[in-house]
Amino acid sequence: MDAKVRMYTTGVCPYCNMAERLLKAKGIDEIEKIRVDLQPDQRVQMMEMTGRRTVPQIYIGDTYVGGFDDLSALDREGKLEPMLRGA
């Protein structure tokens, strides 16, 4: 079973789009997107949880992954797919 993926995002974020493309290429069809540009209270919550202001901020299951650079680094290290498969 695939892990649930949650991504804090905005409407005009190239790194969010790249993160989504990478996740879709790994077979993740459903990404819960939280638009912090439309929901400012969610940005505040995101910043409290992650300590970061930028998007995307990505969670796989309950695990905080970070942004796009962190996601792609996990992929390069071969650690992304096991996380996505709930391993």
Task: Please give a quick description of this structure.
With 87 residues, the protein is of the alpha+beta class.
Verbal overview:
- This protein is an alpha+beta fold.
- The protein has one domain (5-84): Glutaredoxin (3-Layer(aba) Sandwich), CATH 3.40.30.
- The chain has helices at residues 14-25, 40-50, 68-76, 80-84, and strands at residues 5-9, 31-35, 57-60, 63-66.
- The protein has a 4-stranded mixed beta sheet with strand order 2-1-3-4, sandwiched between helices.
- It starts with a strand and ends with a helix.
| Lateral arrangement of strands in the main beta sheet | 2-1-3-4
H/E element sequence: EHEHEEHH
Task: Determine Rg (CA atoms, Å).
Answer: 12 Å
CATH class: Alpha Beta
Helical fraction equals: 40-55%
Topology:
Elements (H helix, E strand, L loop, with lengths): L4 E5 L4 H12 L5 E5 L4 H11 L6 E4 L2 E4 L1 H9 L3 H5 L3
Parallel strand pairs: 1-2
Antiparallel strand pairs: 1-3, 3-4
Defining key terms:
87 residues; alpha+beta; Glutaredoxin
